Structures are given as structure tokens and as C-alpha cells.
Description:
The complex is a heterodimer.
Chain A: E1 8-15, H1 18-30, E2 36-41, H2 49-57, E3 65-70, H3 76-84, E4 90-94, H4 98-105, H5 113-125, H6 131-135
Parallel strand pairs in A: 1-2, 1-3, 3-4
Helix pairs in contact in A: 2-3, 4-5
Chain B: E1 2-7, H1 16-26, E2 32-37, E3 40-43, H2 47-52, E4 60-66, H3 70-83, E5 87-88
Antiparallel strand pairs in B: 1-4, 1-5, 2-3, 2-4
Amino acid sequence: MEQYNGTRKFLIATHGTFSAGVKSSLELIIGETAQLFILQAYNNENTSIEYEIKIIMEQVGEQDELIVFSDIMGGSVTNQLVQHALRPNVHIVSGFNLPLLIEIILGDTNTPVDELIETAISNAKEQMVYVNKLLSTPSNNDFND
Amino acid sequence: MISKEYIIMDSQGIHARPAASLIKLTKNYKSTFDLKKDDKTIRLNSMLNILSMGIKGGETIAVLIDGEDEVVAAEAIDTFFTELGKMIKN
Lengths: 145, 90
């Protein structure tokens, strides 16, 4: 994979204000994150997703890496990102959760981005747990926030 | 390599926010950091790695610091756990 010498940047793109809410949760846990954009699709009827993507992409240089977190695979937000943002230095991950965001944003910047994303997805999937079932197993009766 | 042991005094154990803070702290040093509980050791480069340890209040953990700046890094780890109200064992 090609190496980029710029900055690793992040975009959370969702239907409506989900991205702003997730950003709030993220900052509560890890503090303010530099180079984090959010896209709240359909929240402003006067602005198209395409235009919002364009404004964000103008702030991503050719040597930067952009990791995009979108809400639904097959949804219009992800589809528009694929259409208007995807290029060699842009990586789109759909169906994100908060643990995935934290793993990637706090990830080692020296780790190749594809390796970082694949490991984080694998670990973050394990965070989706039916807690009642977990608690019904005698050896797993504790959990932390 | 420096090894430091701590008893976790917080009844909530090490949860998301302190785990994330710990990861951010390690980024300030060149040393590598490992966290050990019982016979399990994880690299301190992932919040989910820490949470997977299920560290509860009252349990003892060890932090292993290895690298050229391990002395100052160990001091920072001490400060971190002290400020979080954890008991430094040695």
C-alpha cells in the first residue's frame, strides 16, 4: 500500500445528527480530536451531501489519509461517499460503532492504515454483545463501561 | 525494563475513560508498555485490549515499561494511577 506523509484525518458521516452525537460521546471518552470532520446528511435541506463532501475533501491533501466512518452499508450516505470521496488515500468503513472509532483514532499512526482498520473492525465487532446472555453465563457476570 | 504493580481501588475497575487516557499517555513515550493481570499480558496500544482484561476494583495489575525513556515513562504511569485514586503497590 502506498505510504502517505501527511496527516491522518477522520470523517464521521451519518443520516441526520447521529455523527454530532457520536462526536460528543467520543470527546467525553478520549478528549478533543484534531482533524475530525462530521457530516450530518439531510439535516439542512439547503445543502446537498455532495456539496458537504466536496467542502470536506478540499481540506484533505493528496498526502493526507482520510478514514471515513459511515452509518449504513448500502445507505445513501455511504453510496455518496463512494461516489464523491473515494480515492487511494481515502478509506471508508461502514456500520461503525463507538469502540471502532476509538480504536482507530487512538491507533498508532505508524501502523499502516489498512492493517489498523482491519484489526480495529475485528476487535470492535466483539463489542456488540447481548449482555443478558453474557450475564447468564456464571463465569462472565461482570462488565465495565 | 521496569515493572510496576498497582491495586485498582476504583470500584468500577478500569473502564472506558481511564483506559483511553492510559493509551493516550503511552503515546508520549518511545518505550513499549504492556499490562499484565494474572497470566494474561496485553500491549497497551488499544482501549479494547484493556477492556478485554475485565480489570475490576480490588484487583492487582502490573505495567511493564521497556525502552530508552522507561524511567520517565514509569513516573508518568505512577502519576496516572495515583491521580485516578489507585493504590501503588510497589
